[in-house]
Amino acid sequence: MFADSFGSMVFNEKVMRDALSSESFKRLMKIRHEGMPMDDKTLADEVAEAMKKWAVSKGATHYTHWFQPMTGATAEKHDSFLDRDSDGNPILELSGKTLLKGESDASSFPSGGMRETFEARGYTVWDPTSDAFIREDTLCIPTSFGSFDGAVLDKKTPLLRSVETLNTQAVRLLRTFGIETKYVYPSVGLEQEYFLINKEDCAKRRDLILTERTLFGAPTPKGQVLEDHYYGTIRPRVKAFMKELDDELWKVGIYSKTEHNEVAPCQHEMAPIFARSNIAVDENQLTMDIMKKVANRHGFVCLLHEKPFEGINGSGKHNNWSISTAEGENLMNPGKEPEKNIKFLLFITAVIKAVDDYQVLLRISVSSAGNDRRLGGNEAPPAIISMYLGDRLRTIIASIISGSDLETETKKAALTVKNDDRNRTSPFAFTGNKFEFRMPGSAENVSCTNYVLNTIVAESLKQFADRLEPFAGKENFESEVRKLIREELTAHERILFEGNGYSKEWVKEAKRRGLAAFKSTPEAFEHFDDEKNIELLVSHGILNKEEIKARKVIGFTKYNNIINVEARTMLLMAEKDIVPAAIKYSSELAYGIESKQALQLDVEHELKLVSDINEHVKALMLNNETLRSVLDSQPTDPMKQGMNAYKKIVPVMEEERRIVDELELLVDKNSWPYPDYTDMLYYV
Length: 684
Ligand code: ADP
Ligand code: MG
Description:
Layout: H1 2-5, E1 10-11, H2 13-19, H3 22-34, H4 41-57, E2 62-66, E3 78-80, E4 82-84, E5 90-92, H5 96-100, E6 101-105, E7 121-126, E8 132-135, E9 138-147, H6 156-176, E10 184-198, H7 199-203, H8 206-211, H9 236-251, E11 256-261, E12 267-272, E13 275-276, H10 277-297, E14 300-303, E15 317-325, H11 342-357, H12 359-365, H13 369-372, E16 387-388, H14 391-402, H15 406-416, E17 428-430, E18 435-437, H16 447-468, H17 477-492, H18 504-513, H19 521-525, H20 531-539, H21 545-598, H22 604-632, H23 638-666, H24 677-681
Parallel strand pairs: 2-9, 16-17
Antiparallel strand pairs: 1-8, 2-3, 4-5, 6-7, 7-9, 8-9, 10-12, 10-13, 10-14, 10-15, 11-12, 15-18, 17-18
Residues 187-189, 191, 258, 271-274, 320-322, 330, 433-434, 436 line the site of adenosine-5'-diphosphate (ADP).
């Protein structure tokens, strides 16, 4: 039964093989796997007809070009298959032309100011590397999205291009070893964390409705101190949600594999089996969408925000990353004797070099208003990028750098290095045969993270191939490789760190090493169009200069918009709900005090409470004014707005929260207008 339903809603290779002529099937597979341009009209007609027949047989009546604009969400516009034939009769139709290209209004999506220079018309173009699938009654065709005159306006296109450049450079480098491979591709496994809370609780809180996080909320007495939730028994309601989530994901061919409770109460995780990087990202976008819809059917709201609750662990999306050959060799697999495996050491060196050289770009790729609240919070990776390799590999590398004997190095290491193979505090850890990048936020579309990863590694590989090609097949090839590895590891050793990434000492040490440390999105995003980054992205054909500048504007604008919505929501809640509730409650107390005084009772403690509430209300009303005034006096330039939001608005929001959270503890629970943290986090 399971075997029948898995992938039943996907137009996958198995279906294609049956539905297409063997000649067409072969051509399509070449296009899919080797990144050939898709410009064959006859082939497109045949695929479109097969796709439509299959979709209609599954009950679909509509199709959509499914794409990923710069909002970070997915977008779709539905058309029905319905058409009129020449005799005026209704027919169901999907032409090759429609499959290949769709028209869309580009002016309604973020363009970062490029709108002035291009036409409003935009195009969606079929991405044959990703399978079409059916949701409800609609055939979803994965596409990339650009403007009429070719500007890239989506998250997918740069990712597809980065897969290509990584392939080109890796194949070149392998060739210097005398290895011929059809192609090389990055594989990615994304662990998705999320919170489930009751729909009724969410409906009572404007902050959750409008911003997906609690802008106010005093901590619960329990918090997560008992650490009893991690891998704990799953609540029956949550279990039912997970089961339906799996069913839905399996139907669209997503290999949902692991489901468990996370550290925080109400926090859970789903990890699928890894896939090619662009597919993994598509699947993750779809997964997030399905999670929200399934949650709703179970009386839950699924919160994907990076930090829904203050003082409680936030959510990330661990990006497990590796590269493999078409023939199935994982190039990050150390084998039994890594010290002797120079190919493996060279590829690992390429990643170390890439992460060190482009740590700023990587940091930018995980920046968002939501993730700012999570990174460096003593529970998530610090905002500084460093790499952890594990004892064994670190020892090998130390011996390469020092030129010493591995045995001596191993003995030294045994004395100094703590013997655990896991370092949970590292943002970028080698985990046996892949790297785990832990900084991406749970809500993000991780295309950017992955095109940056692929491209920076492609750049290392390119430099290595340039240097090694003249030695290929020569006697001194191996010694040249060793020399190169040693030089590069020596140059980039500063990015390797085995200690506690959450500690204060590390912040100082990282500074001493000259590593980049950006606390906030605007501070990181400032560097997106640094000469070095432009040079990298342009030379690998990922984005042009104008597109990079536009993405910087989009980054700032998005950040600014989020802070503004949050700040205005705070004001709304404070003025409409919290101040009135606190005044009403303290007035009731005051009446009570009057009556008690008439009876000559001691009311000193009650007076203190009323006066405490009064003081807080006063402070809150004053802070409301400050918040309103910083909101009303913002610069007009989007770049300045982002930095202004961070420097001027965020601190006032923090003060607002501090006052309200104290006030919450003074006011009677029945008078408080919202469900509190205990209500929300400890439901049954
Ligand atoms: P953790 O110990 O961090 O929970 P898991 O062993 O559960 O990690 O795996 C995490 C993710 O890594 C899964 O999605 C898995 O499919 C993925 N993964 C495993 N091997 C690779 C690989 N070669 N490339 C990319 N991702 C991989
Ligand atoms: Mg993990």
